Automatic annotation (TrEMBL):
InterPro entries: ARM-like, ARM-type_fold, ATPase_NBD, Heat_shock_70_CS, HSP70_peptide-bd_sf, Hsp_70_fam. The keyword Coiled coil does not apply. Keywords: ATP-binding, Nucleotide-binding. It comes from the Bacteria. Gene3D superfamilies: 3.30.420.40, Actin, Chain A, domain 4 (3.90.640.10), Leucine-rich Repeat Variant (1.25.10.10). This is Hsp70 protein. Pfam families: HSP70. Belongs to the heat shock protein 70 family.
Amino acid sequence: VEDYAISRYTRIGGDNFDRLVADRFMESFGKRVPLDSLEEQERLSLEQRFLRYAEEAKMELVTEMENRAMFGIVDGSDVRAEVLKANVLGDHPFEYDLSYDEFLDMVSPLMGEDITMDMVDNDQVETDGETIMTPVVDVLLKAKDKAGELPRVDVVLLNGGMTRLPAVRERIGRFFGVQPVTAGDPDMAVVRGAVAYHYNLHRGIRIGAILNDTIGIEVIGGKVKHIAPAGAALPYRSPVIKDLAVTNDGATFLDLPFYLGRRTDIAQPNRKIASRRVRFVKPLNEGDVVCLQVSVDERSIMSLEGWPEKDKSQAFTVTVQSDGTYEEKPTSLGMISRPVPGFNRNGQSKGSVSCNGPALNVHSTVQRLVNLCDKAPNPSVNSYGHGDAMKEIKDMEKSVLMASNGEEFVPVVIDYIGRRNTRGLAKSRLILLLGDLGSRHPNRRTEIFRVLKDICAPERISVAPSTVVNTIFRYAVEAIGKVGDRSAEDHLLKIMGRIEASSLWNSALFSLGKIGAGEAGFQKALSLLKGREKGVRISSLWSIAMMGSRERGNLSASLADDALAKVVSHLEREDHDDAIRNGLFAMGELGDRRPGRSTVSEKTCSKALKAIADIRQRATRNRFGNSTTIRSYCDIATAMVKGEVLSQEQEKSLLGLRSMLG
């Protein structure tokens, strides 16, 4: 068997079907029992309970349909699953008579009924939906690109638990025009395949691998140039690409935004996986050709080698992981090969981490972590460095993050967070751990953000007890920052739009900075500098620095100029050490004139340098609690605004500020 095309869309499964049914169950239950006043923990626990009920009902319906099929009966109009549960919430029971036909109606959004083979053949369908047809369409389009025409499909072989559902088999059959084949137990098919694969590996037989998606690089005009095609046999090495040229004189850097997908532009379903900026000691001129050559190994890790055609001494190499993380291979030719740890140019957490620790037993590890939290004396989420109990908790969290099967912890941690008996320190630490897992496993970010977003939903803040707002809600907001999903900006701003959520503003500001929020988040942080308590000022200045960082590239020169002027003005009357430190951080980032960014005006930079000099003079006179630290940050900010290269010690200090509360 030769792999011809593989889809990356593997997220739709039984859980998605269960979720739709559970939503209907909860809606029905809510008509009889008021749910609006439930605390967050109670609601999450109730949602998890209805998910279990939904799965049980689904399996009952599927089993009955399978039994009927054995006797040649295909009609399911009278097939029903009766759900009877006592004491679902307090003493309130839950009853639901679910017919097979109603079940099919509930899950119809997942079936992709509007997609036809003709649409695929005529390129009239995209793979940006979430239905069972998404991976089918994706793999057919890739095969079409590779073969030059839509290949003939002779046999469709199904595996996986949800293929037991007759409606799934029927939908696939209608699409292809042939009845799909199931071989053996569909639940065990994947397991058998994994066993056979590893058995062959131990015998020295390596099954050929192919690249599962097209890799491209963004060029001017929002276009994407393909540099490695889907379906290419691995390992793969491209010919030298020589049709990319510099568009302006004096170019000192080259942006390399990488995308996955077959489209020739940056629109969805193309997906940005990484971005890197490489810099040149010797500026390039308009029309200079930059040559690229791509290599992809059997693990789908891409290495991009590049060099100016007229000056091969300025060669560079960038390695991009298949999950979107990347790392540099340094050169000895003046290239700046140190990306800011934790961030790519768009402010997303890049998650370039090593998860090479031993695999852990997921359920027992999470249960042990919960037990440790429950037994911890005088529990405090932020009891850093004190007590054997907290050290053991943190060590166990670290082992989870480093585990080779770390991604498997995500659904289990989510489940434990939603349990009624998970409370206090355990719930808080699990929420923060979930955020860290999101930064480590980018393909889980959307799912994790959805859970965290539900925990700290703005509309629940006004009805939740203050203790819940200041603990559970707060840690969910902080965890959102750890995940690094820029789509969280709107949610964080909604939280900050509620006066009753003012205790969450500090955490929301730090999270806005971490995700690299856009102009709306930046303007919000600027607006909070005036007349606010010191904690908000400290958070606002740090957030302004992060959103205005050279590594983010989010702001126009005019907006950065205006913001720098406002920060300078604010620091003239600021008297708190931490706020002044973060203000110096913000002035350095906004006024950064080292090579490779659009600079703010000379006039504003001069004002910033004067303000920094004034602060340094005050520090020299020991006017601050830690004048030595303030002086060192003054020197860093001065060097950045002047466009000077930072020393290694200064780089280390700057990175420490950027990773604050990380």
